[in-house]
Design a protein that fits this description.
Elements lengths: L1 E9 L2 E8 L6 E10 L4 H7 L29 E8 L11 E4 L6 E5 L3 E3 L6 H4 L2 H14 L6 E5 L3 H10 L6 E5 L3 H9 L4 E3 L4 H6 L7 E6 L4 H10 E9 L14 H5 L3 E4 L15 H12 L8 E6 L3 H10 L6 E5 L2
Parallel strand pairs: 8-9, 8-11, 9-10, 11-12, 12-13, 14-15
Antiparallel strand pairs: 1-2, 3-4, 3-6, 3-15, 4-5, 5-7
Helix pairs in contact: 3-4, 3-9
Length: 335
């Protein structure tokens, strides 16, 4: 049995390679229906902006290499189980499942690495489960409290999913910030109270009553320069959660009077691990279950702007790189 796998082979270069699939007795073979492209990490790899000497993801068996070229990457595949090893029960056959697997036409994996797709969730929505799981981690790390003012910089897929998750919290206000008008409209549709452009943030926050500024700010734009604006928006004793990964891009941050006297806390949030203070009660499975419970409630279909056949994957990455037509979620589809 063979498969076709997508490899990043150099800056702005991808290739599809024919490879054998050799499942062991305790594995199943999954025929991929759809996989979602991450416009964060995958674009860094595509552009040659990711460090090459770090593991792709030590927590996922399917991503056991580093990020040097050539590299398979991707972590949002949905498909159907078409074969099962001798040690696997027949109940797995024909099930539609999700896996944190790179972009390829089929793959072999152990059943404990699979998440069955709930009946009420479409394959396309399930391919976006990692984005909702990331949003769940961001909320856990941000620890929003009742009546707080929350500002989210970046209304890409992760930012919009975070808006959707936070919209059910009893916040005082939830504001999204993005330079693109269509994304601001989507943020409001998903539950933001306001959505403004970057040049409107200062005036908006200046009108807020004492104590001024935001209690909680998320930097999810992927742009290092935005971190400075996020810190500037936080009020006294405010928290800034950085969910963006900048790769090898450097962030120049002004840590002057506002930051220093304002006792502003800046911390990272990364979905591969759970923060130490939450690990006692939260496992990765619990976090995924929580994300799955939100999938059916969020209008994820509205975030899918492009569906590209796997055989034309080059055009999908070029589209995201050049930002032609403001793509949000781009899906690869498999015949």
């Amino acid at each position: 049995m063979n498969r076709t796998s997508l490899y990043f082979t150099g800056p702005q270069t991808v290739d599809r390679r024919r490879e054998p699939v050799e499942p062991s007795a305790d594995e199943v073979v999954v025929e991929t229906r759809v996989s979602a492209i991450s416009s964060g990490t995958e674009l860094l790899i595509y552009r040659g902006e990711a460090p090459t000497d770090v593991p792709a993801d030590e927590t996922l068996d399917a991503l056991d290499s580093d990020l040097s070229y050539p590299v398979k990457y991707g972590y949002a595949a949905v498909g159907d189980v078409i074969a099962a090893g001798d040690a696997v029960g027949d109940e797995w056959l024909d099930r539609t499942v999700f896996a944190f697997n790179p972009h390829e036409s089929r793959f072999a994996t152990a059943t404990d690495a699979l998440v069955p797709v709930p009946n009420e969730v479409s394959a396309e929505a399930m391919a976006m489960a990692p984005s909702v799981e990331t949003a769940t981690s961001l909320v856990l790390d941000g620890r929003p409290r009742i009546g707080e003012r929350v500002v989210i910089f970046g209304a890409g897929v992760i930012g919009l999913c975070t808006v959707g998750v936070l919209s059910s919290f009893p916040l005082d206000r939830l504001v999204a910030v993005d330079p693109v008008g269509a994304r601001r409209e989507r943020a409001v549709d998903l539950g933001a109270d306001r959505a403004v452009g970057p040049d409107e943030v200062d005036d908006l926050v200046a009108d807020w009553p004492d104590p001024g500024g935001a209690d909680l700010v998320y930097e999810l734009s992927g742009r290092p320069s935005t971190l400075d604006a996020a810190i500037g928006t936080a009020g006294y004793d405010g928290r800034v959660v950085v969910g963006s990964w900048y790769g090898e891009k450097e962030a120049t941050v002004g840590l002057g009077t506002h930051f220093h006297r304002g006792r502003i806390a800046v911390e990272s949030s990364q979905v591969s691990t759970l923060a130490p203070e939450t690990r006692g009660r939260w496992t990765k499975d619990r976090r995924m279950d929580t994300a799955l419970s939100r999938l059916a409630d969020l209008d994820l279909d509205s975030l899918v702007t492009h569906r590209v056949p796997f055989d034309e994957a080059e055009s999908a990455y070029r589209l995201l790189h050049e930002r032609t037509g403001d793509p949000l979620q781009v899906l690869l589809t498999y015949d």
